[in-house]
Amino acid sequence: MDRKKVTITDLHAKKQDGKKITMLTAYDYPIARLVDDAGIDCILVGDSLGMVVLGYESTVPVTMDEMIHHSKAARRGTRFAFLIGDMPFMSYQVSKEEAIKNAGRFMKEAGCDAVKLEGGNEVLAVTRAIEDAGIPVLGHLGLTPQTISKLGGYKVQGKDAEAAKKILDEAMALEKAGCFAIVLECVPEEVSKIITEKLSIPTISCGAGRYCDGQVLVTNDMVGLFDRFVPKFVKQYVKLSGLISDAFKKYKSEVEDGTFPAPEHTFAIKEDELAKLKKR
Ligand code: KIV
After folding, report:
1. Which atom of ligand 1 is nearest to the CA of 216?
2. Alpha-carbon distance 16 to 205, whole Å?
3. Predicted model pTM
4. For residue range 142-164, what is the model confidence (pLDDT) as tens digits?
């Protein structure tokens, strides 16, 4: 079947038809290619970049320039998936003008199809402003890692009725503000079920259970390339770090004992040219 580029209309149709939306993160060309080739609907260039690729302690230090650099690389590896750039901390909080300018960079410089920003009531006005500028916005509620110090750590959100109602109200407000979908991170699945049923836009679960319209995982977590910690909601489909580490150790020992390179990894010169060279 001919594949077409995924659009917001396709994502909304999936919710209508009860089909699950798939999303993974990618921060560079080779992984974006693999994700795209696997037929995943959406690629998120998450600011998780900061932790799983750049080695920061949290997502807070990630800059616009870092996000644009990696989004450009992911763009080059993406043909069909819907590509979303994650707006880093402080790129959309200072003023609407700055937020629109930064969201625009994801579209113009990196060729993204949309941007994501974290937060509820505090980002409604800026969400509307970015949407009004013609840039689709993916919302993000529940555990919002950019404000981790305010939340008091990486904890499940919406665990009591009041906190859950706040997430529901904010989800409805974000839908009204124009978001095309909302990521729910670390929310009890019964809560995200209620939110999913109330919204007409899709919900994407990141540790928010089985009843959302789609799922997203950080690719480096699910392929075992980031082992500082593995969140409870992550399923590791493969442990690449072990495989890669074994390959590095084998390479070291083969170089040291002369097994690598073997003749098939070398280039030759013609006998007569070699003889001439030796005479010089
Ligand atoms: O930064 C990121 O990768 C994210 C996803 C986990 C939703 O925000």
Report:
1. 7
2. 17
3. 0.96
4. 999 999 889 988 899 999 999 99
